[in-house]
Design a protein that fits this description.
Blueprint: E1 9-10, H1 17-22, E2 26-27, H2 32-39, E3 46-50, H3 57-68, E4 94-98, H4 107-124, H5 135-149, E5 155-160, H6 164-167, H7 173-192, E6 197-204, E7 221-222, H8 237-241, H9 245-254, H10 259-270, H11 286-295, H12 309-317, E8 328-331, H13 332-336, H14 345-351, E9 356-361, E10 372-376, H15 380-394, H16 399-414, H17 418-431, H18 442-455, E11 461-466, E12 469-477, E13 480-488, H19 492-501, E14 515-523, E15 528-529, E16 533-536
Parallel strand pairs: 1-2, 3-6, 3-7, 4-5, 5-6, 13-14
Antiparallel strand pairs: 8-10, 9-10, 11-12, 12-13, 14-15, 14-16
Length: about 525
């Protein structure tokens, strides 16, 4: 009997290039042609790239390390093996480290961790660490000594998670400033000793430290939005069709889907990240996609790799809800703001991967206009993470009880039991709002409906334009259309009357699907909705 060849899957937890390449189960998607362009010996050899967490930055740095060290045996069959890469003839010593090793809960603990990190670097070249001076001075001594011992008289420095020590203190600005000042002096040594560095690449999630830390690193070239490297991290649609095709087919087979259906599901869940306004290329989150292919299940994985507590709290402080993030206006300056004291929430969400570029509106340079962006969550996985985080962290809802309500509502929607959904589940969902929270007006009542409806799979369209105004919400299914109007401290009858008087359902009248009108009134005294009114058009 012929044995079936096991299908390798893209990495989900292995971020060491050598381990992945030599693994019998892991699959490496070839990005070496892009890495060759990134690291080619040009004047721009000291770089910075930001990407959201769990996007393969550590694997990229590990791959670059093997390239500069001349480990050609690891690159057989990959694009760079056929290119005139310098490392094949003249390797350069590489010093790679992550600043997550320098994280501490206090400033003193941060300093101690930074000292340990630098001491470890000195140990790699048998350079004694001088306790009489601080870690910054020792770091400079390390750079000079390492280059002196190098056969090329230069070294390569790769720094992962450069922003991690600062991110720890985003809600503690006093300590943040102290940490940031120390990091400024630490990173400045890279600039003042750049003559010893053949290639420098720093990566991180945000640019939160740029205005201070990066003032000592203004020689770095930022490749974060460079169109040439828009697909360097993450998997493209073409890669799903090519090297990942067998994985897509295997995922589809486990779920009763053909290749086209499985790919569509993957793109819906994990695709949508656009990292350059000059390129329309979009990529999938590589770790989430790898988890899906490994488990055979299309669901959210990103949230499990790190809770979005800070993000969700900032959304709440801004008076926003997850549904408000679908069409967020921004510009290039706003997205590049990186000082923690003035950081707009749009920049924090974009840099963290919770929002991406949905649309670019080109300005006219002759009129002094700049390009404008429309931002939105990239995919279903992020939307779900934001909404679940909001429900649990901000509203304090217990996941088990809330999930039971959601599961019931999903079954009602799937079976077309909209009366059960409206008369039972929706009451329970509004009753879940914490008692110290007040729904103050019609807009807030509608926003909660949007949140609940999304979690139950209804996915309403908000503020749908009609000839005489805007319908508060419309839910379309393959077999029916539901038009909603909300009122606050009035009546469900008044809501139905407005739908009819303003002819909100006209665009669906006469179609093949039945149209149902739904009027809902939120009663602040009851802290819940009154009995909804449901009528056929």
């Amino acid at each position: 009997m012929r044995k079936t060849r096991p299908i390798k899957v893209p990495t989900t937890g292995t971020f060491d290039f050598e381990t992945l390449i030599t693994s019998k189960t892991g699959k490496y998607i070839d990005k070496t042609a892009l890495l060759y362009k990134l690291a080619a010996p040009t004047v721009d050899s000291q770089l910075f790239i930001s990407r959201p967490r769990r996007f393969g930055k550590s694997l990229m740095l590990s791959t670059l390390k093997a390239m500069f060290e001349g480990r050609r045996d690891l690159f057989k069959g990959l694009a760079i093996d056929k290119l005139p890469w310098e490392g094949w003839k003249r390797p350069t010593p590489v010093y790679s480290f992550t600043m997550s090793s320098a994280v501490g809960g206090t400033y003193d603990k941060f300093q101690a961790a930074l000292t340990k990190l630098v001491s470890g670097l000195c140990g790699q070249i048998d350079l004694p660490y001088d306790p009489a001076v601080d870690a910054t001075v020792n770091f400079e001594a390390f750079l000079v000594a390492a280059a002196a011992k190098s056969p090329t008289k230069k070294i390569v420095v790769l720094i992962d998670e450069y922003d991690e020590p600062v991110a720890k203190f985003l809600d503690d600005l006093k300590t943040l400033k102290l940490v940031r000042s120390t990091l400024h002096d630490f990173y400045e040594k890279l600039k003042s000793n750049s003559k010893y560095i053949r290639f420098l690449l720093m990566t991180g999630v945000t640019k939160l430290t740029k205005l201070s830390v990066f003032s000592g690193l203004n020689h770095l070239k930022d490749r974060s939005m460079d169109k040439r490297f828009a697909t360097l991290l993450g998997y493209t649609s073409d890669e799903l069709d090519g090297p990942l095709r067998e994985n897509v087919e295997a995922l589809g087979a486990k779920n009763g889907l053909n290749f086209k259906e499985a790919k569509k599901g993957i793109l819906s869940w994990y695709d949508g990240y656009r990292f350059s306004p000059e390129s329309t290329a979009r990529v999938c989150n590589p770790v989430s996609l790898g988890n899906a292919m490994e488990s055979g299940k299309l669901k959210g994985y990103w949230e499990a790799t790190g809770k979005a507590t800070l993000i969700v709290n900032r959304i709440e402080k801004a008076g926003m809800m997850p549904g408000d993030l679908e069409n967020v206006p921004a510009d290039a300056f706003m997205l590049d703001v990186c000082d923690a004291e003035t950081l707009p929430i749009e920049a924090l969400l974009y840099q963290g991967g919770y929002l991406t570029i949905k649309e670019v509106k080109r300005g006219d340079p002759k009129k002094g206009e700049t390009d404008k962006f429309v931002l939105a969550p990239p995919n279903l996985e992020v939307r779900e993470a934001l909404k679940r985080g909001y429900l649990s962290q901000v509203m304090g809802l217990k996941e088990g009880a809330f999930n039971a309500l959601v599961d019931t509502a999903k079954r009602q929607i799937a079976s077309g039991d909209w009366k059960g959904y409206l008369y039972e589940s929706l009451f329970g969902l509004y009753a879940s709002v914490p008692p110290d929270w007040r729904i103050k007006n019609e807009a807030e009542a509608k926003r909660y409906f949007q949140l609940f409806a999304f979690m139950t799979g209804a996915n309403p369209q908000p503020e749908v334009a009609t000839m005489l105004g805007y319908a508060d919400a419309v839910i379309e299914t393959p077999s029916a259309v539901y038009v909603f109007e909300f009122k606050y401290r009035k009546s469900a009858k008044a809501a139905i009357r407005q739908i009819r008087e303003r002819d909100y359902a006209a665009k669906w009248a006469g179609g093949s699907r039945p149209v149902t009108l739904i009027g809902i009134n939120f009663n602040p005294k009851k802290r819940n909705i009154d009995m909804p009114i449901v009528e056929a058009l």
